[in-house]
């Protein structure tokens, strides 16, 4: 298949916080090091301090001006296209969202785990809500200052700032704020999510998972659906297809081979799931990303 995208490995400035933030200065005539779409497991945020910047996120083009922020979701393909101004100065923040989960965020896991939609949908909130956009920009600046100065307690400060940013986003999304009023018992579902990611190529049995959680099969099934809003089987299928999307764009191989690599041995079932979640075939998906890899396409 196509090799139009690659996985970028993010080097953390702090391995406890799993975070990286730095300022970039790019000029109009400076060539960009990225020539292909890339992705990483970390959430990425850009905050423009001066000039203009054009960013491609999947098949969307975002033009950013001073004070603008943009969010790129976990493993979401993206590419910096151009600096249409003489110079652009901006902050780039990467952080591993898993490092900031705690029981208080459990009811919001479905939202931040991008089960229904990519987290980059909040970019529309940034465009519509000037206060939110300013608050997020100021928080990114504060994180940068804390990581630069590394004063006593900076790890605590950065952790609080990241959660403050997530809270601001959550409360600005009225649909999610209304949905998350239900009180739900807290179990360490992050162990389930980590297990699923490690075993996507294997057969994943809910009985194994429920024993790992020390819960009955029936209770775990109901609990998972109550928290996530979808069954455990559907969640596993979504994660398999998400992995298949990345393999289609980074690995050479037949669609049947890629289906096997994500644990789906029935090719017809693979096509059915892929079309259900992407509204197109695997070949159409790869072609769409390949043709959107250039700003002139």
TrEMBL record:
GO MF terms held by the record: DNA-binding transcription factor activity; sequence-specific DNA binding
Annotated HTH araC/xylS-type domain residues: 190-288
Sorted keywords for this record are: DNA-binding, Transcription, Transcription regulation
Q: Name one Pfam family in it.
A: HTH_18
Organism domain of life: Bacteria
Q: Which PROSITE patterns match?
A: HTH_ARAC_FAMILY_1, HTH_ARAC_FAMILY_2
Tell whether Transcription regulation is among the UniProt keywords: yes
Q: Which PANTHER family match?
A: ARAC-FAMILY TRANSCRIPTIONAL REGULATOR, HTH-TYPE TRANSCRIPTIONAL REGULATOR EXSA
- What is the protein name stated in its UniProt record? AraC family transcriptional regulator
> What is the scientific name of the source organism?
Paenibacillus ginsengarvi
